[in-house]
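Hey everyone, long-time lurker, first post.

I ran two proteins through the pipeline my lab uses and got sequence/structure pairs for each. Pasting them in order. The first:
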Amino acid sequence: MLKAKDIMTKEVITVYPDTEIIQAAHLLLDKHISGLPVVDKEGRLKGIICQSDLIAQQRKIPLPSFFILLDGTIPLTSSRHIEKEVKKMAAITVSEAMTADPITVDPETDLGDIATLMVKNSIHTLPVLDRGWLVGIIGKEDILRTLMSGKKK
């Protein structure tokens, strides 16, 4: 069975936490990729910024839900959650909009497990780490390419 190391892209385009959102958006569009690993100056993975993170900036401000009990209100959404969402919507740098601590795989992860992770977690890009270091990236396109190469014309 194929493994992450067999299908991953080894030349990974990355950004830093202080990269401006607009620069990350240009890279995603220009390179036709759905996600960019965010690394620190030493190259350690800090997060991932995806097209969906940038699209989320355009949504409406989430209004908190309340439950009324005996003329008192009880919030159903924490103010911390709402604050986090508003901060993400107003992000200027990648660190403000990225998903910190993303789901990752190692080079020996089976293709079936990779596909399951992507579908189950609704993600399009998986960083590949070897002993904590970024060695590749797998996108849904990599999996589709693998599936197509196995089909006969």
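...and the second, right after it:
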Amino acid sequence: MIAIGSDHGGYKLKEEIKKYLEEKEIEYKDYGTNSEERTDYPIYAKKVAQAIQNKECDKGILICRSNFGMTVVANKFKGIRAAGISDEEAARFAKADDDINVITLGGDYITTNQAICIIRNWLGAEFKGGRYQERLDMIEEIEKENMK
């Protein structure tokens, strides 16, 4: 199950991504926003991150104009590994090397087709484990020390 959310700047792209997910019969939950009316991205990044923390969803997609703000907010949550992704290769590496569980997309910088290719590659990649898991274990220790 994928949690998806956007602010007003990412709303149109979110709606196109939802069509793709439906076409591919990939389950998702939409955490808003529901229009292009101005709103604040931390609201939706928080909802998506919490849905993953609470195990309502396995992964997340966040969309705003740049991807930067959404990435910052999502990474404030323990267990969330969010990365701004702008191309297919980065999407594969994000999953394979770092087991990124939330991708953030910048609606002002990528097309719908690019976003779909990114999502397809991210979902299709397998986490490598091994030395990469050791690094995730290190990150988990850092979270324990710094996220009370």
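Reply from user beta_strand_b:
Welcome! Quick read of the second one: Residues 89 and 121 are 8 Å apart (CA to CA). The radius of gyration is 14 Å.
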